Amino acid sequence: MNVLIGILVLTVLAIGHELGHFIFAKISRVPVEEFAFGFGPAILSKKSRGTLYRLNLIPILAYVKVKGMEPGDQSPDGFNAQRIGKRFLILFGGPLSNMVLALLLFILLFSLAPMPTTTIGQIIENSPAEASGLLPGDQILAIGGKSVNSWEDITLTINQSQGGSPLAFEIQREGKTLEITATPTFLTEEKRFIVGIIPALRKRGFLEAIGSAFYYFGNMFLLIFQSLGMLFSGKVSLSDFSGPVGIVQITAQQAQAGIMNLLGITGVLSMALGVFNLIPFPALDGGHILFLVIEGIRKKKINPKVYATVNAIGFIFLLAFLLLVTWGDILRL
């Protein structure tokens, strides 16, 4: 069941991506010849407003066919005949749709997931916190004279202390401000210092959830770009990346851990798909956008044969990349 959920997640991401191309083609009034869910022979199909909608036999992934996208196709109402601006929007629509989907999933995640506060919810038995006299309900105001505004501030300050020396916790208890000292201890398995406190949790308000989602979105966006940069610079190898098999496996594991984990990993994968497709490499959306930039600079369309050849070479490299990372996924099973 969890593997099927993993496959379903990949399919949702593919539908979201293709839907972005579809929507912006419709907005730009460029005919969409076909929108298909799955592959193989059609089991259901219906034509509406010039578009053939298909449900195929194998309900995995999706694809959209915009009229006039093939190199050399000069249909007067097709993609290639449109202004650069319209073509850019249609190409950018796929990655943008993935990023919007990721943001919506993050908003849902942070709306549902409880948020740790600076108030202590539980004290771990036989911990430095218990020995020091810290109690559930104490609100931590500062540690070592440094103000804390979030649970992340608290864990970071404790871990940076490197242990050994007592830390002064300024707390508020029943309306009074107190100072209690506790000496962090080192957890070998987790490789970090703790004092043995667990935060109280609270639900975020809707606007707060939106703010948290945007903050998380920005951090993940930068992290994904940094990971791709490390791949191209040689700081990481192909073995550190996952293909479809690895993604299904990871998603299945997160699904088993619960709905919150599944929402989080689906959002991250949607972002990764969007960012990856923006890489200015032939056969990717980013590669097609690069050709548009070159066309805009030259004020002249690129030779269709050159366009087709470069994209074919790019597709072969992408296929080789996919096979390599998939082989690595299989070896790790």
Describe the model.
The protein has 333 residues and is of the alpha+beta class. It has two domains: 235 residues, no CATH class; 87 residues, PDZ domain (Pdz3 Domain). The strands form four sheets. A four-stranded antiparallel beta sheet has the order 5-4-6-7. Strands 1-2 form a two-stranded antiparallel ribbon. Strands 3-10 form a two-stranded antiparallel sheet. A hairpin with a 2-residue loop joins strand 4 and strand 5. The longest helix is centred in the first third of the chain and has 29 residues. It is elongated and about 75 Å long.
Radius of gyration over all CA atoms, rounded: 26 Å
Distance from N terminus to C terminus (CA atoms, Å) equals 17 Å
**Shape field:** elongated
Number of strands: 10
- Domains counted in the coordinates: how many? 2
Spatial order of strands in the largest sheet: 5-4-6-7
Number of helices: 9
What do the pLDDT scores average to?
90
From N to C, what is the helix and strand string? HEEHEHEEHEEEEEHHHHH
The helical percent reads 40-55%
- Largest sheet properties: 4 strands, antiparallel
Approximately what portion of the residues adopt beta-strand conformation?
Answer: 15-25%
Low-confidence stretches: none
Structural class computed from helices and strand pairing: alpha+beta
